[in-house]
Amino acid sequence: MPHKQQIDPKTLLRCSVCEAVNRDREGDVYCHRCGSRIFRNPKLSTSKAWAFLITALILYVPANLYPILISEQFSSHTGNTIIGGIILLWEEGSYPIAMIILVASVLVPILKFIVLLYLLINTHLKKQRYSRVGQHRLHYMTEVIGPWSMVDVFVVAILTGLVHIGQIRVIAGPGATAFVLMVLFTMFAALSLDTRLFKEKEPYGRDQSTDH
Amino acid sequence: MAQLPREEVALDRLIICPKCHTIHQKVEIPKGKSAKCDKCGRILYHYDARILDHGLALGITGLLLFFVSNLFPLVRVEMLGHEQHVTIISMVFSLFENGFYVVGVVVAFMVFIFPLMILVVYIMINWLMMQHKGAQLTKELLVLLSKLLPWNMLEIYLVSILVALVKLIGLMQIHFGLSFWALALFVLLDIYLSKSIRIGEFWELRRRIYYAP
Ligand SMILES: [Zn+2]
Ligand SMILES: [Zn+2]
Fold first, then answer.
1. From the candidates B70, B87, B107, which should be mutated to test the interface with A, based on the most A CB atoms within 10 A?
2. Under the phi-then-psi rule, with left for phi > 0, alpha for psi from -120 to 50, and beta for the rest, what region is B65?
3. pTM recorded for the entire structure
4. Handedness of CA B201, B190, B55, B120 (dihedral sign)
């Protein structure tokens, strides 16, 4: 139930560290409760988010081209890329596992790229098409589903540690390194996005508070 | 801190939904109940009168389970008389041995170092607040805790163990170790802890304990 107070709800921000409600001030915002700098210069954080996202997009290429897993049986080496591994599982009839890896390693990263690209492009538009609430929901969603893209990396790590038995050995492939870095950079991109830029219609910067 | 306390008080009566960003006025709720966002249904806060007792008990249980899950093998495989087992630590070491330092370091942080830090920090916060000690320290620990939380990926790791094992079915015999079950229990507890810690509740409690009555 919104109260009639002298505080304009449009200038309110949520501290991502302690959840306290803060008043928006242009540029750097320090939380009144936990003291964290919760927002920086929006231009700087937008460029940072772009840099992280582009790095992640570039890393996505080697992550898919190089094998994520290499199995050595007797004297033969076979490298499996992410997609190759999914096809193999599917052919072997492990449909649920093939689906889990498809969702976690292929769909989640792609979805996250699309959402972050969309949100970032939106911050540059004067008039945003999508509602502010909708943008916040999308951003929240990327933070929730994002970490699940680590499934395949963990699988590779477990197999590397576990399967060194007799003449059979499984080790990680170079794709795994690229994939891990890609996940990290997408998470950094989502974290550095300035959510103050999710606005309904008005362009940013209408705060006339007297700040130090 | 150069702000009007009156504005702070007014601001602290509000809460913003982390999911849909709707602004709500906090209301008093009965014991054991929780307040939900009326737009999207996400839980905003709840009223647990013994939040610190519960937090401390859960934290210590978690720490015990975490130790058990790292002491014994998670999984053992057998094939033609050969045997091999894996623990979280041995997994990280074999990544290093094979030259996968980046993967090894990232995985070690996500499934070992961060979960352990979260537990220790969480226990310390609950204990300090119970003793009414360390006003400044609890502030720093709470900030650290909320920065650590998104990087804990143990529940994803548990699912990954199962996915990895499915790939081995037919090739070798698989035995779950004691640590696997400890880890599974720990993950359940961890999901409850990490995903349901309402950091805001601790901050409010902190203000009540160390500052004005
Ligand atoms: Zn804060
Ligand atoms: Zn909501």
1. B107
2. alpha
3. 0.84
4. negative
